DNA sequence: CAACATTGTGCGTGTTCATGCATGATTCGG
DNA sequence: CCGAATCATGCATGAACACGCACAATGTTG
């Protein structure tokens, strides 16, 4: 029996019984308990189960996706490169709505200091990320705070958002696909995004390579409405080519220092 | 049995019974009381229970307010009387938005059968309460369901709501005061209510006696915007008199059979 | 083909953990 | 204020554990 095969069988038992015992598994698969423990350790570090004394438990509740400030630390170089590339398209004097998202957070942190930009956001993390400078005043839209998306959502936020007419919307995308368009994980988030799209003059999306070609459950807007997509050179592939045919202005971000 | 498993079982008993006894648990799980005490200590430090002499109590953080269908059973005769009085003001052919609330639920259940009324609501309970009749078509507005208020709230709901122009809004009021106006317990609920008020032609509020003169945290609309208030004869008092001076049409509901 | 790297496994060793018991302190109820 | 119940703490014990090492099977390179 292959190791991966055995681990898959353990995962099956986990979902079926909610727990597994190390000794039990060792007997069932005719391997030593050490091997089982190694399996469980591996699976736990991959987030497939919770390791406890005597065995392992199935991951209870929803596997909590890392909050925004943690997402910001993964693939940080790529996101900084995206932000640097996107920053070139922020025109002096514009009112820019920055949607929630880790790539957008990077943009907020490295706004070009040589241009005046009025920043509006419904994400507290982004509001905090903008370095305090007189040329970059920040307006934070409030509402019911949702830790998952890292933004304020709900009816109150929507009411505030619809009063805005930003020159540029830096839209966050949980998924970006030529056919499915921009999609989001949360229905409330998607509703806010849709409203933002309607009221914004121009739209720009920052998307790391792994977002391209992926689809999240809730539709926001088609790609044809997005004027500019900033992504990585590493993203080239079928999904990238399909996006290029939609007419959007695609900007490739290289390493920062280029 | 795994330690964590046992603690989960204890947590289950806690939520079910509200309390647990150390000796009882020791017998049930066939471990020493020391082990149970260790469990309870651990759980208490994790905030899962409150440690007391002899056992532990469930964390009484949020006292769960009774859901809508339970609130409907308290003061039911008064609410039915309000509903009967309010029903007289539903004009044939009107589109009526019925806001969430137990008094409004009573109204939905006893709509006058001799008039055609297009019912719109964002409360599933109210949609279900309307007896299925061809002259009373029901439109349910969706969104994120909130069990506390018994209605759909959030950005999606607001988006749908603002497309409506109902002839009459039967507004729910958590508090009704001559000075503070109509107020609500939930900010999201209040935001939806405000939008409904803006788009409705006429507004009617059903308020039991105990609502009069009370104030909830979130402002919805001043009393001057409410065209008709239906309340109980038993409500007469200072708060009632103050309301009368605002110019609203005050309707007193008597016992049903009068 | 031979030498080498990689991987999965089992075993030995020392460590950590869960548990029950003993002990003395604390709390409760009368 | 006293006895009984309950508790926290320390300790002993055995089970479960992580780690390092050896070995075999397999794949890789020269």
From TrEMBL, chains A, B:
<dbReference type="GO" id="GO:0003735">
    <property type="term" value="F:structural constituent of ribosome"/>
</dbReference>
<dbReference type="InterPro" id="IPR050313">
    <property type="entry name" value="Carb_Metab_HTH_regulators"/>
</dbReference>
<protein>
    <submittedName>
        <fullName>DeoR family transcriptional regulator</fullName>
    </submittedName>
</protein>
<keyword id="KW-0678">Repressor</keyword>
<dbReference type="Pfam" id="PF00455">
    <property type="entry name" value="DeoRC"/>
</dbReference>
<dbReference type="GO" id="GO:0006412">
    <property type="term" value="P:translation"/>
</dbReference>
<dbReference type="GO" id="GO:0003677">
    <property type="term" value="F:DNA binding"/>
</dbReference>
<dbReference type="InterPro" id="IPR018356">
    <property type="entry name" value="Tscrpt_reg_HTH_DeoR_CS"/>
</dbReference>
<dbReference type="InterPro" id="IPR036388">
    <property type="entry name" value="WH-like_DNA-bd_sf"/>
</dbReference>
<keyword id="KW-0238">DNA-binding</keyword>
<dbReference type="GO" id="GO:0005840">
    <property type="term" value="C:ribosome"/>
</dbReference>
<dbReference type="InterPro" id="IPR001034">
    <property type="entry name" value="DeoR_HTH"/>
</dbReference>
<dbReference type="InterPro" id="IPR014036">
    <property type="entry name" value="DeoR-like_C"/>
</dbReference>
<keyword id="KW-0804">Transcription</keyword>
<dbReference type="InterPro" id="IPR036390">
    <property type="entry name" value="WH_DNA-bd_sf"/>
</dbReference>
<keyword id="KW-0805">Transcription regulation</keyword>
<dbReference type="GO" id="GO:0003700">
    <property type="term" value="F:DNA-binding transcription factor activity"/>
</dbReference>
<feature type="domain" description="HTH deoR-type">
    <location>
        <begin position="3"/>
        <end position="58"/>
    </location>
</feature>
<dbReference type="Pfam" id="PF08220">
    <property type="entry name" value="HTH_DeoR"/>
</dbReference>
<dbReference type="InterPro" id="IPR020592">
    <property type="entry name" value="Ribosomal_bS16_CS"/>
</dbReference>
<dbReference type="InterPro" id="IPR037171">
    <property type="entry name" value="NagB/RpiA_transferase-like"/>
</dbReference>
């Amino acid at each position: 029996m292959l190791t991966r095969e055995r681990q898959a069988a353990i995962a099956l038992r986990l979902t079926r019984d909610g727990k597994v015992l190390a000794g039990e598994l060792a007997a069932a698969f005719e391997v030593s308990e050490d091997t089982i423990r190694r399996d469980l350790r591996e699976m736990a570090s991959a987030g497939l189960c919770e390791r406890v004394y005597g065995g392992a438990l199935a991951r209870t509740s929803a596997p909590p996706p890392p909050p925004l400030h943690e997402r910001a630390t993964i693939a940080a170089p790529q996101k900084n490169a995206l932000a640097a590339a996107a920053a070139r398209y922020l025109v002096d004097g514009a009112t820019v709505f920055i949607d929630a998202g880790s790539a957008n957070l990077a943009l907020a942190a490295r706004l070009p200091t040589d241009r005046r930009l009025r920043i509006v956001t419904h994400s507290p993390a982004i509001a905090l990320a903008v370095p305090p400078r007189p040329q970059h005043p920040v307006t934070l839209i409030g509402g019911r705070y949702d830790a998952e998306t890292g933004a304020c959502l709900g009816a109150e936020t929507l009411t505030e958002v619809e009063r805005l007419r930003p020159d540029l919307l830096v839209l966050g995308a949980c998924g970006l696909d030529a056919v499915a368009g921009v999609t989001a994980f949360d229905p409330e988030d998607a509703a806010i995004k849709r409203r933002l799209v309607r009221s914004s003059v121009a739209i720009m999306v920052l998307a790391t390579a792994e977002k391209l070609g992926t689809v999240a459950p809730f539709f926001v807007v088609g790609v044809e409405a997005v004027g500019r997509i900033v992504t990585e050179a590493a993203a080239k592939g079928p999904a990238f080519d399909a996006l290029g045919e939609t007419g959007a202005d695609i900007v490739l971000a290289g390493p920062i220092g280029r």
